Amino acid sequence: xxxxxxxxxxxxxxxxxxxxxxxxxxxxxxxxxxxxxxxxxxxxxxxxxxxxxxxxxxxxxxxxxxxxxxxxxxxxxxxxxxxxxxxxxxxxxxxxxxxxxxxxxxxxxxxxxxxxxxxxxxxxxxxxxxxxx
Length: 133
Hints:
- The protein contains 5 helices and 2 strands.
- It has about 130 residues and is mainly alpha-helical.
- A two-stranded antiparallel ribbon has the order 1-2.
- The longest helix is centred in the middle third of the chain and has 33 residues, at about 60-90.
- It starts with a strand and ends with a helix.
């Protein structure tokens, strides 16, 4: 299957990606990770929303700090997971990896990983565009 990603700083490249069991396992693992991240962020957000920093005691402020650190850890791991998926599926060279890391914003990394995953799962380009709305 050919994949062309207009979002990448490598816009003129067409990537040839196999719909192999290996790549599909990576795709399902990515989707599972994103589902877990979404739930974790929801849970952390709910817990932080009940703590009012202006009226919190030391224990609550310490917990709020822990929750914020967990949120950053989840976000950091999510970006790394998405980048690893992109690099692995597209078989990017070290030079291409550097170009991607220097030119992409965080939200684009997740969007691109999702776009690749959807294409590998047989979702049409129109459906990919519709899912972004």
